Amino acid sequence: MKFVRFSIEAKEKLGIIENDIIKEIKGDFFNEYSITDKEYKNEDVKILPPCIPTKIVAIGLIYKDHIEELGFPFPDEPIIFFKPTTGIIGHEDAIIYPSMTSRVDYEAELAIVIKDKIKDIDENDASKHVLGYTCFNDVTARDLQKKDIQWTRAKAFDTFSPVGPYIVDDIDPNNVLVESYLNGELKQSSNTKNFIFKVEKLISFISKVMTLLPGDIIATGTPYGVGPMNSGDVIEIKIEGIGTLKNHVKKA
């Protein structure tokens, strides 16, 4: 199933995509819903961020190749941090380059969307509580990250959490290709089979720290090849089985 949140004529709606046609639903993804007889073409609507989370929990240092690139030791446990929900933007929206920083990087990531309220979940039960998966760009002010040591400011600017365009529930999250393209040039390419912690481990670990709620996003970390973006650039995050999240960069 491919879930989409969209607007048309200034009204927000939810739908399911079948054969490139958006079929409006009554209800919502996280509870019961029914498919209506209203249909739309992609080009006739504005694609919105696919969910409205209460929090974005992000993972650092998860791809073997990225850790080796940085020369860091493998962590014993997942490294987690927060990104504020005020940073969320959708497909085709602009990433704003803040005047406070001199380097803004892309980071292609698979994102997990939580289906229901969970706490202290076992790894074996984790997948039951996932609505699906989507594309995420963990945009980062790299110079500020190095300056501050801790990551909050570097990760928290408005527009620094592009997500979308769809939520897909029928992929194997532990074996999908994750790529980024800057102005059409391939910059990152790896597979989630290179994770040092499987998706189920991440969900379980985080749920033992905090309660996760419907629509919450877990951004699973980025592979090797991160790099800078400049005003006027176009960045695309492509994930096998999901699609492409596309954004352009502009100065504040």
H/E series: EEEEEEHEEEEEEEHHEEEHEEEE
Strand-pairing-aware structural class: mainly beta
Overall geometry: globular
Largest sheet: 12 strands, mixed
Q: Which fold does the CATH topology of the largest domain refer to? A: Fumarylacetoacetate hydrolase, domain 2
Can you identify the CATH class of the largest domain?
Alpha Beta
Oligomer: single chain
Strand content: 35-45%
Poorly predicted residue ranges: none
The percent range for helix content is 10-25%
Overall CATH architecture of the largest domain: Alpha-Beta Complex
In angstroms, what is the radius of gyration?
Answer: 17 Å
Topology, number of strands: 20
List the total number of helices: 4
Whole-number mean pLDDT: 96
**CATH homologous superfamily (4th level) name of the largest domain:** Fumarylacetoacetase-like, C-terminal domain
Q: Terminal Cα separation, in Å?
A: 37 Å
Number of domains: 2
Explain this structure to me?
The chain is mainly beta. It has two domains: 2-47, SH3 type barrels, CATH 2.30.30; 56-251, Fumarylacetoacetase-like, C-terminal domain (Fumarylacetoacetate hydrolase, domain 2). It contains four helices and 20 strands. The protein has helices at residues 64-70, 142-148, 152-156, 199-207; strands at residues 2-8, 11-18, 21-27, 33-41, 46-47, 56-60, 79-83, 88-89, 94-97, 104-106, 108-114, 130-137, 140-141, 161-168, 177-182, 185-191, 217-219, 227-229, 234-239, 243-251. The longest helix is centred in the last third of the chain and has 9 residues, at 199-207.
